[in-house]
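tool=predict chain=A
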Amino acid sequence: MTDPFHDQTGRASLGGARGLAAVRLGIGLIQGLLLYGLWRSAMQPDAMTWPANNPPLFAALALACAFTPVMLLAGVGRLSIRALAIWGLVAAAVLALLGWHDAAQQASDYFRPPYLRFPVVAFSAAALFIAHHLIVPAVASRRWIADFDDYFDTAWKAGVQLALSLGFTGAFWLLLFLGAALFHVIGLSFLSDLIGEEWFSIPVTCLVFAVAVQLTDVRAGLIRGVRTVALMLLSWLLLVITVLVAGFLIALPFTGLDGLWKTGSATALVLSAAAALIILINTAYQDGRENNLPPVVLRVAVRVAAVLLTPLILIAVWGLSLRIGQHGLTPDRIIASACALVGAVYAAGYGWAALSPFWKKTAWMKPLERTNVAAAVLTVGVILALFSPLLDPARLSVSDQVARLKRGAVSAADFDYSFLRWNAGRTGQRALADLARSRDADIAARAKRAQASTSRYDDERATPPGKPRITAWPKGAVLPEGFDAPVSSGDPRFACSGTEDCVAVMRDMNGDGRDEILLAARFQITLFAAEADGWKPQADYRANGCAGPRTSDHRELLKSSDVAPVPSPWPDLKLGAATAHRQARIDCPPVIAPVNP
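tool=predict ok
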């Protein structure tokens, strides 16, 4: 492949370096101007102008303009001009389609530029990075699948280069702010005013990032040196995570999985641990060459970690299946399922690589290479499917949730209409409109109330399924009838319907001869007084930290025998139609160290 920017040794020649710099600076400047144009169209003082007034188009342009130039900066000098142009057009088109689809599926509530959800942005960036570093080595070697060491060298070098370029850009802005502060001290604000102008800040940021990419690319050997040090340091962290994961798995038979399920994020936690193992295994394996093998202790850790991936993925799949069986599909669970699928490929391939020497003589962890390439291709395909109409998580989730309602797996009272109204985009709102026309009067009425809601925090299921779990203290005390009846989400007692009990103590707080109730959750105590229409909250209390760490749990504090009101010498303050409530100052006494006799 002819490369106009490098000499026969692979280093940037003088003319080549100048050509590379000019091309990269041009890309950075064009990106900055495009992003500024998009920002300006969305921030007009009177009304948004084109293309911001067309959300799908704006989202498509924003995603393409944010990431395609970064890929072009990395591809300059590594791909021929023709190959880079074709790949750039394909990447921009795919990114634009992902952005268009995401914006087109969102509902109009709280819909603001750039009209993109975070998962789409994050996963699009990941897919582009992976795809780019699958394509560049393959094109360079003129083969569909390149050698693994070429993939390793290209991807990890680019990762280090990206990190350094982002750091350089951040340091540049820190220096600008420092300079602006220095000038401001002597009464000159021109620099502060300049960096506050988007016509300056957006193009300059893109331009500085392009400069950083060029500077880090001129001396490829230096980048490889930094990469070698980073990989060496990270590889030794594999020992830490391997011991921790092994200890976790060994302890499971004795502790059970109940504690893990109660976290509410068990699958994400376990998949994160698996991802950490995969990354750190690769920092130790590197390019797999025999002259680059890690020490024996790391080779053993790699084999053990590769085997540990399988139980982690099985736990994640188990947790997902339980949650989906209990509550159906949601977009987050569909994305987690996709991550678990990719994790299963890694677990199978890495497990085979670790155990294959027992029945077949192979080089150390050699099958890992094919697994990495296959998993990378699968990852790109899964991401493109997830954020396109093919496997759109919102569509699949809505279909599953409505089917559960229709077949009676969830009752009309417990069905999450709010999910359709606020969290499933246009697909959810269309399904909610269909439910509002249902022949079942209860379902139709609840769906119509959800359609009329003005906040995503208005829950159709206003009453929790059970009574608040409140323990009267001291033991044997009896709470007034009705105090622990089911309440709506606006009542402090609603928090007692979660995973933790509350503690209640009866005290006469104002000296009128009638007891009030102090209700303690973990981080707060609420005062309730009896009124004509029931018990109503009157005030909240939070303890200061002077008494030590135990003050973090207000339930334990309330169980103390020394619970009494403290008279205040200072009243609240009336300010016209408003009232300012006094906030007590917290002045902890100095800690006096004990004197040794």
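The CA atoms of residues 309 and 331 lie 25 Å apart. The two ends are 83 Å apart (CA to CA).
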